[in-house]
Every structure is written in C-alpha cells, then in structure tokens.
Amino acid sequence: MEPIKTILALADAYKKLPGIGPKTAERLAYATLRMSPEDRELFIQAIQDSMDKVKRCPHCGFYFEESCPLCADPSRDHHQIMVVCDSKDIIAIEKAKGYGGIYFVLDGTLSPLRNKTPESIGILRLLKEAEENGASEIILALPTDLDGETTALYIADLFAKKGIKVTRLAYGIPVGTNLEYLDNLTIAQSIRHRTDMDKGGQDNG
Amino acid sequence: MEPIKTILALADAYKKLPGIGPKTAERLAYATLRMSPEDRELFIQAIQDSMDKVKRCPHCGFYFEESCPLCADPSRDHHQIMVVCDSKDIIAIEKAKGYGGIYFVLDGTLSPLRNKTPESIGILRLLKEAEENGASEIILALPTDLDGETTALYIADLFAKKGIKVTRLAYGIPVGTNLEYLDNLTIAQSIRHRTDMDKGGQDNG
Predict the structure, then answer these.
(1) Whether the predicted model's global pTM rises above the 0.80 cut
(2) In chain B, what residues touch A69 (CB-CB under 8 Å)?
(3) Contacts across the A-B interface (CB distance below 8 Å)
C-alpha cells in the first residue's frame, strides 16, 4: 500500500527545498495534514504572496515588496558594493550596522560541476552595476569554501583589470570564541592578518 | 532592517512543522522564493488538496481520498486491531506484508506534561471500535520511549478489564544488525524473549 496521491504530491513539494530528503519530506507531508485548516490557509497565502508581492531588485538582487530599501536609499554610498551569495547575508550584515554602501547578490558561487558560470551567477551583471555606479570598491563577503574562494579570486582578477579595488571581509577569530575550539586555518589566518594595537584594526598581513 | 513581511509569514508557516526551528524556517522561506512559479503552484495545490481531498477514516484514523483502504476491505480480519501512533507506521507495516487485521491510529502517546489524556489521544474511541468490531486481540505497535510504554500499559490494563487480549510487537534484534552496535536494553529484551529454534518464534519470556 502506497501513501495517497496528495501526500506524495506534498512530499514532492517539500523535497524541492534544500536540505530536505525523502524521509523528512514524507514526515513534513504528514505533519501538514495535522496542521489546522487556518494554518494551512496562511501557508498557502504566504507561498502565493511570494509569487505575487515579492520582487527582486534588478540592480542588487535583494527581495522587496515596495521598493528596494538598499538601492533606493540616497544616504547609502553607491560607490561601495558588497558582494554576497544570499539575500539572508544582507540582513545579517545590516543588523551589525557597520556598512553604509550598497550590495549585490550573486546566484551562488562558481562551480563548473554544478554548471555555475560567471554569467549564470551574475558576475557580468555585477560588473555592469559597478561601472554604472562608478564603484570605487568591491567588498567580497562570500563563503569560505573552495567554490567561494574560486569566485572571490575570479572577481578580484576581473575588477583588477578595470582598476577597481577589491577587498574581502577579514578572516580571524570570532569575538567571544575560545582559541582551543577554533580550526587551524582560522588561527593561521588570524596570525597572518594580525593588527597593530594602536592602529585599531589595520591589516599587517 | 528586517526581512519583508511575506518572508516572515513563510518562515512562520514553516516553523509550525515539527523539527523546524527559526533558523531552518528562515532558510526554507528564502528557498521558497527561489523555487520556480510552477513548483510553487504545485506546492500550493498540494496543501489545498490536503484540505479538500484528504479525509480521515472515522474508525481507524487513517488518511484516504476515496474510501478507507483498510476498514472498507472485507478480506481483512476485523477482530484484530493494531494500534499505532502515526499513519506513516501503517504504511511501513503494510509494506512488510505480515499483518491482515485492521488498525487504529492514536493521536500521539499519553503525556500529562503535553496535556495528552486517554480521551484526547483517542483511547476511548479505540475501546468503542474494539467493542463494535467484537475484537479478540489488540496489538500494540507504539514507540518504545517512556510515554509509549505508559500508553501501552494503560491500554493493556483497560482492555484486560474487558477481557480482550492485548499483545505488543516483539522486541529484539533487528534482522541484519551486528550485536556490537546494539543498545543494552535491546539485547536484554532479546535474551528475555528468546525463542525455541523448533517453534519458529514462540515466546519463552
């Protein structure tokens, strides 16, 4: 005996989300059947709104409902562009309140295996945005895995040819972390990029 | 800057599913925005169908679209009722093809802390179903945690008073498992319930 069609369809829908395997998808499908009709109506409405109301900024790629809160803000410095891989990262950086420039969201990182090219992840659009904004600095806030590094090096190379400065967020010890729990690479990077006490954070690397 | 309303509403919907915390819910909400419109339409349709098409059998609690494939099947033995905590368990047991009776799905296990009483999880309905079907045996297939044990003992006690036999699925060594990876309780149970080689599975406990 197989689960009924609707349950299979629900599980299929959940399976399309990242990190949800077949077993979890089935569990979530049955859990959906146990949700109250009101909660299911809200769920449907939220997915519908995600199609009807949410727009993506044609410039930076951030999601908004009215107008892009970043690109449309004249108080932000349009000559600094921070490059991230995920809109969620913008929320995190904005919460830290240490940045006043604009952003650019790449659709993932370069990966020949996953068919992610400079064009498909948006690096060519980034170049165009940088030129149109007369950007003076590109700040990379990309993942620190292999594909993230490849992407960072590719962008650095591309913009160096155009004479635009490219920087990256500092590697180092997270504030409040105990050294003994840190990986070797992070410790090595924190030594290489050690800062003078009196310069308040100048790079020595 | 906060995520936009639709993303918060989507995350709220995901958070109502079991095992989905705030961080995962947020991740799934952003992932939903990246789904194709076709996939989102299918997702909405599946949730809508879960309300419009899926019914719960008033007798056993199993989900169906046309008629209950278990209770409506005259070839099944209606005098044997297997009690489970989750409709998914019925699918697993049916796949094993070793059982020909009917089922009863409890809404969870007894737990005073989570406000789960014999009435709220359906034990009183189980009693009614057993009496109406003239049941000769109740087979418990409940979780082996503390609440599952409590529920099993409660049901055994209740049906003993009515003179109806209550059994439970055998505890023991899963087929194909290496002894060294098994927990002590399972090994102890498999010794206690050891079977005679010539009886092909008779209990010795």
Answers:
(1) no
(2) 1
(3) 130
For residue B169, the distance in angstroms to the closest alpha carbon of chain A comes to 20
Q: Binning pLDDT at 50, 70 and 90, where does residue A198 land?
A: low
Q: Is the reported ipTM for this assembly greater than 0.85?
A: no
For A24, the closest chain B residue by CA position comes to B19
Report the residue from A6, A39, A65 with minimal CB separation from B6.
Answer: A65
Tell if the CB–CB gap between A65 and B1 is shorter than 8 Å.
no
Q: In chain A, what residues touch B42 (CB-CB under 8 Å)? A: 9, 12-13
Quick: pLDDT tens for B78-120: 999 999 998 888 988 888 888 999 999 999 999 988 899 999 9
DSSP designation for B115:
T
The three-state (H, E, C) secondary structure of chain A, written as one string: CCCCHHHHHHHHHHHCCCCCCHHHHHHHHHHHHHCCHHHHHHHHHHHHHHHHCCEECCCCCCEECCCCCCCCCCCCEEEEEEEECCHHHHHHHHHHCCCCEEEEECCCCCECCCCECHHHHCHHHHHHHHHHCCCCEEEECCCCCHHHHHHHHHHHHHHHHCCCEEEECCCCCCCCCCHHHCCHHHHHHHHHCCECHHHCCCECC
